[in-house]
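Give me the fold.
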Amino acid sequence: MRVYYYHSFDPQWAHEEWKGGRLPAHLLYGACHLKDEGIDVIFHHAGHGRHRWSLSLDTAWKILRCYRRYDAIYATTFRGLELIIFLRALGLFRKPIICWHHQPIVKAKSRLRETVARLFYHGFDELIFFSQAIIDKSSESVKAPVGHMHIVHWGADLDFYNRLQQEDGAVSHEGFISTGKERRDFPTLVNAFNQTAAPLDIYVCRESNGISYERILTNLQKKENIHIHYIQGNKIREMAQCVNRSLCAVICCQETNYTVGLTTVVEALALGIPMICSDNPQMPMDIEGDGCGLTVSYGDVNGWVNAIRYISEHPAEARQMGLRGKAIAQKKYNEKICAHEIGLILKNYEGK
């Protein structure tokens, strides 16, 4: 079997970076290890369209140009794939489409948009979700493809992180660290650390998705235990090294209806680093229940203060949290398990 793999960023580049050991494989959602499942992969070469319609046209042209070379499309997002999906819904594109859906399927605000969306969702053969909570919410929508929605255990590239830890050697785990850029709640995080003496290093880009983190952080009062580092470019490996050397990863996010912060969570699990995380009910794992970290309600400064102090005052328990997290990554949330589960879904369309 052969699939055409689509991602909104350039997966050909990412695949080469992974082969060179510079990127973890989980950024390609199992595609790097589908060959181990008996599935060949054609990696999409992403275009550079500034607008969504131009990106969709460019994507459709590339997919249609090699139509006879693959059995199905495997996509990690439908952004840029819209034209092909509508063609599939209309019966004009005959190859099955298997796609990740990152947020719950919900009813559109207008009748027209809802009508168009119902047609759009007929274009998916299978949808993949991160957690049962997102599937349950999606199932409330009449356009959800009931019976064609799957949970896949997306997790980190353990080989990548094991190599990194071997190269790092023995390290003294010190301080708290915040990485990641999506919908981070820095006012809550900074206000909490201002009430402790615990050292915090924040690594973030100056701006992300229209949010100026530089402006937000500049306007916040910060005590001397808080250090801000602005990053740019591909710093995934460098950030992973910083997390590996920390005492605890902190993932303080705004409230959302999807798994914001999950990439940082699976990295902490893979590295065996305990975490404090906003209590997001969409997360697939039970961070506190599984004993690999602590969770705090959205915007709860006092809750964050208590969690920070607990980790600081109980280093032995913090180490055990990290070890439990590593075991969970090895057993359930890792790239190879993700690839295997994806492979099982894709093989249902072999030869069709």
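The chain has a mean pLDDT of 95.
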